[in-house]
């Protein structure tokens, strides 16, 4: 069975950097935005739209009195589309896991690929560090004020938590759902990735 | 400032082993049962009794209608003794942290020593692994059935969670209160301790 490492991460915590560095050290595939691209290709939906969907749980908020089987409402259609994107995402992840050793960031991969016995990592940080990292790394967020940036980080993470809870029935970020939880406010990503890669190689 | 590493741990998860191994690799002091011994010396209470106290939150369950300021009840006395043991424990920990680099297991050390900016580790595992570890390592628990052992593990951890919440106002085991949370069901303690020690040395 291929070695699979999944990384859940709070926005701005450096999960993507950790994943990339680990992949480089281990010489294995790294999947993040590639998953969105692949789903977009398969569903013929725009990448931006797929990205929105995989960051939010399906939206069921419309009056229950409307006969859902009789009227194919707009909401019905949206929910179906969201659910089918999740199903396609699961297919893409399973194919990636079958193909070779790899690191997958986000996308409920820890849960979807549980039969592959992945090493499940969760990366988090305090708000101050996350804002600092966003300022240093991101392009989109650099014009936001401190308050706006905090609000955005909290919103993205809230959506991730809801999405994860909706599809897995588990609590996002709860240590019991992971093998390793890393606070990048205290631990430097570069050095930790190197040490962790060394340990993973040693375990093989 | 001395380098302080604190280790919170679920019963049977291997937190003590990780602490000892880390201390050996780093060549620094390791405190676990020594803390109980020191508190026992200072308070003239039996070690066994101190151990019981530092694994449980103070017991406030007596009728509130009894005037606590008027009657020095047995419960009053016990609560005072428990609280003073906690205060003495805090003194002992601070003195240990002032003395040299060290690793401290349990005792709310992550919270008590927060001004020392410790590396805060939490060690946990799934129930199956914890029962297995207890069977392999412990002497006291080896005669217990599977069911009795599970009950004991849950009880010890429940007490630890209550004790931690009572004195720190924080949630025991919640990732935000730690820098690194390690699931020893998936990660081998020996190899992880070596890798982590290497990284800590590299950070100096």
Largest sheet of chain A: 5 strands, parallel
What is the number of helical segments of chain A per DSSP (H or I, 4+ residues)?
8
Which spans of chain A of ≥5 residues are poorly predicted at pLDDT below 50? Answer: 60-70
> Percent of residues of chain A in helical segments?
40-55%
What is the C-alpha radius of gyration of chain A, as a whole number of Å?
18 Å
Mean pLDDT of chain A: 85
Distance between the termini of chain A: 12 Å
The greatest interface here is: A-B, 28 and 28 residues
Structural class of chain A: alpha/beta
Quaternary: homodimer
Strand segment tally of chain A: 5
Per DSSP, what share of the residues of chain A sits in E-state strands of 2 or more residues?
A: 5-15%
Please state the overall shape of chain A, judged from the principal axes of the Cα atoms.
globular
Strand order of the largest sheet of chain A: 2-3-1-4-5
Strand/helix succession of chain A: EHEHHHEHEHHEH
């Amino acid at each position: 069975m291929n070695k699979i490492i999944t990384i859940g991460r709070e926005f701005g915590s450096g999960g993507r950097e950790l994943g990339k560095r680990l992949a480089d050290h281990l010489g294995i595939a790294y999947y993040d935005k590639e998953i969105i691209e692949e789903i977009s290709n398969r569903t013929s939906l725009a990448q931006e739209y797929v990205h929105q969907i995989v960051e939010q749980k399906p939206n069921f908020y419309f009056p229950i009195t409307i006969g859902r089987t009789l009227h194919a409402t707009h909401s019905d259609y949206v929910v179906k589309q969201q659910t089918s994107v999740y199903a396609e995402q699961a297919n893409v992840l399973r194919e990636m896991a079958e193909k070779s050793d790899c690191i997958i960031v986000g996308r409920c991969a820890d849960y979807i690929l549980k039969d592959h016995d992945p090493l499940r990592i969760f990366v988090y940080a305090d708000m101050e560090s996350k804002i600092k990292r966003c300022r240093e790394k991101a392009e989109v967020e650099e014009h936001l004020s401190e308050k706006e940036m905090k609000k955005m980080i909290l919103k993205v993470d809230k959506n991730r938590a809801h999405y994860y809870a909706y599809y897995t029935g588990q609590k996002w970020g709860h240590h019991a759902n992971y093998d390793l939880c890393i606070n990048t406010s205290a631990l430097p990503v570069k050095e930790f990735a190197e040490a962790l890669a060394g340990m993973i190689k040693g375990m093989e």
